[in-house]
Amino acid sequence: MKNPLPRLASAMLFLCAALACAAPASAQDWAKAILDKSPRHQEWVKVKYDNRTVDAFVVYPEVSHRAPVVLLIHEIFGLSDWARSQADDLAAMGYIVIAPDLLSGFGPNGGGTSAFPDQQSIIKAVSGLDPATITADLNATADYALKFPSANGKLAVIGFCWGGGQSFRFATTRQNLSAAFVFYGPPPPAGAMKNITAPVYGFYGGSDARISATVPDAQTAMAAAGKKYDTVIYDGAGHGFMRAGEDPTNANPANTTARTQALASLKALLGKM
User: CB–CB of 132/157 below 8 Å?
Assistant: First the structure.
């Protein structure tokens, strides 16, 4: 009879690896701690349109002038503590940031992201969202924020992971965008790119071939449509490097480097609005 210990050890190693991959998205006490220490005003608002209500998280910058609005689209993990802390990071740059919970009303008992029992159920729910509803939610949320007395009328969209793909897709439907920022998200169909009116900026991980492999074809299609699409691929960085790059448990220094460099680029590009 063969020794079962090697097989057991392999199984345990696989389990530990799986847990390690899940930890950055699910165990986000560090992100909540960062958010709780922020000096900026944060609030939850209810965006109502037709027969739907979307809960959204808003962070205001500490500035003396009216500011542009940044619409933030969360990862496939829903409107997590990290997504909200990223909204605060952007507000610190001088922008009004509104982040809708696109799972609003779709959770247990009509709740949103926080109502789901675990991460896998959140991923499944986000993956099953209707694109038409997503677009309507994003438009309603953007319109809501643009009416703030402190908003100056300019609008940008930024998304991460699943939200990065939605940011790129939203740019094909929204005509008054000043810019669209795509963090490691897939592109929309090439035929839809002709409808884009804003410059698109893409940020990708060099070790994230599932997404970064789509960049060359997207560049070709955007160029053929006469659209601006500037991209950067960070060597050694993995998928989700903006989150992983500040996670205390991150074991890949390339993620931290990519996050630092991407934030600097993002701040410069937003400043051009």
Answer: no
Partners of 70 in beta bridges? 97, 156
In this structure, the number of other CB atoms found within 10 A of the CB of residue 176 comes to 11
3-state secondary structure (DSSP) of residue 155: strand
CB 168 within 8 A of CB 182: yes
Q: Buried (b) or exposed (e) across 96-106, using 16+ Cβ within 10 A?
A: bbbbbbbbbbb
Torsion angle in degrees (nearest 10) through CA of 152, 81, 201, 261: 110
What per-residue confidence (pLDDT) applies to 50? 97
Q: Please name the residue that has the structure tokens 């939610």.
A: 137
- Residue numbers in the chain where pLDDT is lower than 70: 1-27
Determine the Cα angle at 32 with ends 201 and 21, to 5°: 65
**CA-CA distance, 172 to 218, in Å (whole number)?**
13
pLDDT computed for residue 18 by the predictor: 36
Per-residue confidence (pLDDT) for residue 27, from 0 to 100: 57
Classify the C-alpha dihedral 271-173-150-44 as positive or negative. Answer: negative
- Distance (Å, rounded) from C-alpha 184 to C-alpha 209? 10
179-183 vs 151-160, strand pairing mode: parallel
C-beta of residue 177 within 8 angstroms of C-beta of residue 68: no
